[in-house]
Amino acid sequence: MTSQMAGPLSGLRVLELTGEHAQFCGKLMADLGADVIKIEPPGGQGTREVGPFLDDEAGPERSLYFWHYNTSKRGITLDITKPEGQEVFRKLAATAGLVLESFPAGYLPSLGLGYDSLSADNPGLIMCSVTPFGQDGPWRDYQTSDLLHLAAGGQMASSGYDVEDVPDAPPIAPGGGNAWHIASHYSYIAIMGALYHRDFTGEGQYIDVSVHEACSLTTEGAIAIYLSTGEVVRRHTGRHASADMSPGIQHATNDGGYINTTRSGSNLTPARVKILATWMDEYGLAQDLLEEKYQDPAVVEESGQHFADVLKNFFANMPLVEAYEGGQELNFPWGAVRTMGEIVGDPHLEDREFFVSVEHPELGREFTYPGPAAIYNASPWRISRRAPLIGEHNDEILGGELGFSKSDLEALKKLDAI
Amino acid sequence: MDFTWVRAGPWAARWLATLGAEVIKVEWPENMDMLRQNRFTVPPGVTPGPNSTGQFADTNAGKLGLSVNVRHPKGLEAIKSLISVSDVVIENFSSRIMSRWGLGYDELRKLRPDIVYVSMAGFGQTGRQHYFGTMGPAAQALSGLTHQSGLPGEPPAGWGWSYLDDTGGMYGAMCTLTALHHRNQTGQGQHVDLSQMITGITLTGTAFLDKTVNGRESRREGYPPGNRTVWPGAPVVNNYRGPIAAPHNAFRTLGGGYNDWCVIACLSDEEWTSLVGLMNGPAWAKDNKFATLNGRLQHQDEMDQEIEKWTLTMGKYDLADKCQAAGVRAMPVQSSQDRVEHDPQLRHRGMFTKVKHPMLGDWKFQGAPFRLDGSKVAVKGPPPMIGEHTTKIMGELLGVSRDDLLQGYEEGVFWPETTPRFDYVQQAIDEEAKR
After folding, report:
1. Closest CA to A387 of A10, A14, A47
2. Is A284 found in the same domain as A137?
3. pTM of the model
4. Does residue B39 surpass a pLDDT of 90?
5. Does the annotation mark B301 as catalytic?
6. Catalytic residue among B165, B210, B260, B304
């Protein structure tokens, strides 16, 4: 039944001219039903050269990085530096609700393709520019990368190790390309705000997103702690931001795993201590936690480090899943540190139909992709197709939908404009 | 109607408020938002209390504050009346708590057929472990994010703050706005069932595909490679951050302080050549073994040590400016203090806006990382003091009579009978009595 329902963004056409900066924003919209047309330079976008690759053989149609970030999109090639390409782009932009781009500040206007020009005949058009530092300012033209943004944005100043885990550890940039994720999330929020405005007024607008500002906003309590106390946060292993020397919360289990207990001391009440200690006592590992003194909230408050020590010893004698699920059954919000091998096939995720099979017809194969963060009960998320091949939809979009004739397309091809 | 608490949920509704929505934060003083109790962010000289924490302030800026007892029949009735004139209900309790209060989606759609209802539980509302709870750090562990961060051969470093509270919040806002747009287009509301933990998994997509497509496990030698793209000696396969490059690391800079570090990344041979030029072409750097990416990857330890000798001669901002001027990618590692006090870009763009706060005085609030139509987007106002707008909301929005409102206070509907009333609460009641 749900497969017949349209996604919440159906009817929205998006022209995407962005690679690593914001193609995740495009994916989020495409999987929710928007018609996202990825516009690549002839020969394909640079992100196709980023691995890992199918069977570890490099190739522009084999990048798993590109595959993941470009699901549900259609793809065309277009050289917008050529007048002929610009003409095609203008025609396409006249049919679009959103242009999502991440060229250097000022680049599209220099081609005559800025917001004012494109929106002149399409006043409902929204354009979102996602750049490292926004359209102005002293750092506007600085070159960046994921690592550089996580340094300047404050992620690295917060992340690293407790001294007991790794003495002298450097600040560590968490992995996975998250500077671009963070920028894509805020871009998405801004775009949705603009769409909401347009729903009521019919007016489009120009949005200027800064990756740096998005990252700077994403360090939990670091800014509030500084503004409140003048202190900067400490780097520590996997827990909430804090400036104090808070007890460690990641503990090794006896099967080589690690459990994260959020922050063992902070949410404990005498009643919760008793529940925890009773369980630990079943293993003979409660130490002194069943003693009457821990029924005093003041003692509990002071004993964070001791609880952490007792828990550490408890976990050192337990296998990971037993510790984590046992804690959860008693309402302790703990988490196992999981790898991809432990996540793929997780029955809870199966229950939520998280694992999505996506066909790659040109390979005659299907692969399992990650599903959605959220289930929309009236307008489902869906991967409608795998990432586009280079220029896969040139004929369909430029010919079929924009009405260019076969000979027009041949001419554009000869000029290397598509 | 914002039923959320702690960080992820309130952060979601904070962005709705920042975009202009009238957000009513529903609270009850006997079971207070944990951030109101965060004594670590009460500035010195400010009287501690639920209205005095910096972390609550920024996380809840621009909302209205309603105190009402959902467990009292009259309180529940008031809530339902408010929902019938609202567009959105957003909550981040453990799964199915709202249903137990009679405030599940099926109930609320009877009050308001096109309501957009967003739930933000740790594991979601469905699935066999729906009742499992999470806070950000545990959700990060379960999602695979934690394992992607750290040094090889060491325990996972994870994230030193709660990334999934921030990001879970963003998804709460994203889901709400998406469902609102859908409602605007179709007239149809819906229930959105968001999971904080699963949000994290969707941010590990490339690693996920490396597992499902190539069968490569993330538990492997040389992974995760710290700040590098590939650990020396490990097979040259991508680490899911972006292009493979070397140098690609954090380096100490002059000063020796806790955050005196910068990062440098050379994404091409040309950028490497520029870096060598900037370092005045030292003999070690001209060795042929550093001429190619593969050579640099293989000899990263030696290369990084030599680079650090150079970076230690300069301050981090000076170094980044010099590198950027020479076409080399470098940025300082910035602390919170650096971003508030020193970052010239954030200052230029007006990232922080001072807003008068009743307890904290002129307080700096974080603005939006986007400009709309050329305008800076700042917070709408300070956060609410607990129950600050109760009489206003009940009286002006719902048209509840003076007598009913005053009786509600007497009966513990709008403020707990046993909790002392703050001055502003008593004043609002007194003003109401005079109406």
Report:
1. A47
2. no
3. 0.98
4. no
5. no
6. B165
Question: Is the separation of the CB atoms in B64 and B17 below 8 Å?
Answer: no
pLDDT in tens, A335-386: 999 999 999 999 999 999 999 999 999 999 999 999 999 999 999 999 999 9
Report if residue A233 sits inside a domain. Answer: no
Shortest distance between the Cα of A77 and any Cα of chain B, in A, equals 22
State how far residue B17 is from chain A, nearest Cα, in angstroms. 11
Residue A47 sits in which domain range? Answer: 2-218+351-414
Domain residue extents for chain B: 8-201+353-434, 227-239+241-344
Closest chain A residue by Cα to residue B199: A373
Is the predicted pLDDT of residue B104 greater than 70, yes or no? yes
Q: Are residues A182 and A260 in the same domain?
A: no
Contacts of B244 in chain A (CB under 8 A): 51
CATH of residue A282's domain is 3.30.1540
pLDDT > 80? residue A1: no
Q: Is residue A227 part of a domain?
A: no
Cα–Cα dist B222/B226, whole Å: 9
> Does residue A225 fall inside a structural domain?
no
**Could you say which architecture CATH assigns to the domain B227-239+241-344?**
2-Layer Sandwich (3.30)
The minimal CB distance from B133 to the residues A207, A238, A333 is found for A333
Q: 3-state class of B185 per DSSP? A: helix
Residues of B whose CB is below 8 A from A259: 141
Q: What whole-number distance in Å separates Cα of residue A280 and Cα of residue A269?
A: 16
Which residue, chain included where needed, has tokens 């998006």? A14
Distance set, CA B157 to CA A114, A159, A344, B151, B252 (Å): 43, 7, 22, 7, 20
Decide if A220 and B142 are in contact by the 8 Å CB cutoff: no
Closest chain A residue to B367 measured between Cα atoms? A217
For chain A, what is the domain count? 2
* Same domain membership, residue A83 and residue A159: yes
- The pLDDT tens digits for A380-398 are 999 999 999 999 999 999 9
Instruction: Identify all chain B residues contacting A143, using CB atoms and an 8 Å cutoff.
Output: 324, 327, 329
